Amino acid sequence: MRYLYDYDAGKEKDLSYFRQYPQEVVDFRRRLEAAAGVVICTPEYAHGVPGSLKNAIDWTVATCEFSHKPTVLITASTDGQYGHKALLETLRVIEAENIDRLQLLIPFARTKINGEGRITDGDTLAAVKEIMEEFVRTCYRIA
């Protein structure tokens, strides 16, 4: 995602803009299209969605790579509720498959995940396992 150019919705009416997508965008869309599903695990940033993540998703709105694609959203942050809610709504709008069942908010993440990235809180670990099992079931159901 870090190599994607900024999406400019104002250029949507210019057909030449759509004929000249940057190669990074084309590659990103192809990877999404080929994937059985998508896992998004993100922090909240200033009560919102990190800009690079929102930009990547914006590049897919017109071409529908997320439409009916099983997608997990895990927000792990200090609070996380604002960014999680915003991103959840975006994923609903672009028709990510089973998003209401495939989402998890992990507030106070630093107390539940250690410096090596291991989940140390039993309830959080159980919730992550449950959501990932549901993700796999959804991927098989869609395939």
From TrEMBL:
One GO cellular component, as annotated: cytosol
Single annotated GO MF: FMN binding
Classification via Pfam families: FMN_red (PF03358)
Domain NADPH-dependent FMN reductase-like: 14-95
InterPro entries recorded: Flavoprotein-like_sf, FMN_Rdtase-like_dom, NAD(P)H-dep_reductase
SUPFAM superfamilies on file: Flavoproteins
Cited PANTHER family: CHROMATE REDUCTASE (PTHR30543), NAD(P)H-DEPENDENT FMN REDUCTASE LOT6 (PTHR30543:SF21)
Protein name as annotated: NADPH-dependent FMN reductase-like domain-containing protein
Species whose genome carries this gene: Puia dinghuensis
